[in-house]
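Running this now, will post back.
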Amino acid sequence: MRALHISPLYAQPVDGLPTQAATTGFYWVSCTRSELETQLPAIQTMLTRLGGSALVDLHVSDLLNPAIPSNYDYTSVYDVLVFRRLANAHLPPLNGNHTPASPAVTAGTGSAASSAPPPSHNPAHSGQRETPVLQRVETQPVGFALYDQILLSVHPDGCFVLDSFWQRLISGPAKTDSRQVSTKMPVEPADLMLRMVNGMVDGYLDLRRTLTRQIDHWQMALLKPNKRFSNWASVLDVRLALHQLDEICEDQRAAVQDWTEALEGWPPEHTPARQHERELLRVRSRDVLEHIERVTHHIHRMEQSAETAVQMHFSAQSNRANDIMRTLTTVTAIFLPLNLIAGIFGMNFEFIPFVHKKDGFIWALVAMVIITVVLVAYFWRRRYLESEEKE
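Update: finished.
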């Protein structure tokens, strides 16, 4: 368990749990779910003393539940936000500059992360079945209890969100090219919570590039004209994973939307500085919501791309089958008159024209050749013998 006193100019770690309200700034208390469960009485006492109310039992169970979806709830004293984040990703800098991330790819939405190493992308093994990236997207919940002067955050074990923001806050402003980059400290608990949520959402934004490459891989595999595709189980896993990710984003959007609506109902501030800070909270909330909507929109596009690839695959297979059937039908039509001539001259009658003549076979063979040439030319002119794939 960690406690941090955040003021407008610096952030200072606190030994143990804070015992009295901060004169400036606010407190950030962070813990894992196991620590919350074991030290719940001490945490409840601290929240009652500094925040004015302890967590109700329902909210405690929500914060301890590793499978809970993203949601928002509130009381007259505090707000509770649960947000599911990627199991392993890198967050953008605290000042809002966006950097590429390396999101984790492990299956499902449970709390246990897979320890299996990522699959090899060696071209020598390209003929083997490749596990889709979408199968291995895992999310874990991070809970926030928001008071006026204290923020309690509950994380899974080994949470990169906790470690990343803790180091950024206590390290202070960074320096680049002998110039100090302005990294403004959070002014209130809601500001810090939204920054952390925004960082988690940016992990989903960075995941889009990886998911797009995987969808492109399946599109190319489905649309190969001369290769039969049989890995339908993996395609189904991809579609199920996309639906699952869509549900996760929908829960996130609903939770942030509820928070934004609750923020609009807060009492108005009486000073221009506080009004400006409140407006910044609204802007940051709308920015988080817009990022979630971008992720949702991209997931919908990927679902449509996957569905279109499957439909185009079956359409191409149907066209190929029609092409084959047309060619076979044309060949059968060419040989049909030849079989008729052979059948007539094979009848067991004594008097048949050309049967008893020395050149009868030659005349029959010439007639068959002429009929074959005429039919082939006719069908070729009608483009019955051409393959659509070569056009």
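The CA atoms of residues 55 and 330 lie 80 Å apart. More later if anyone needs it.
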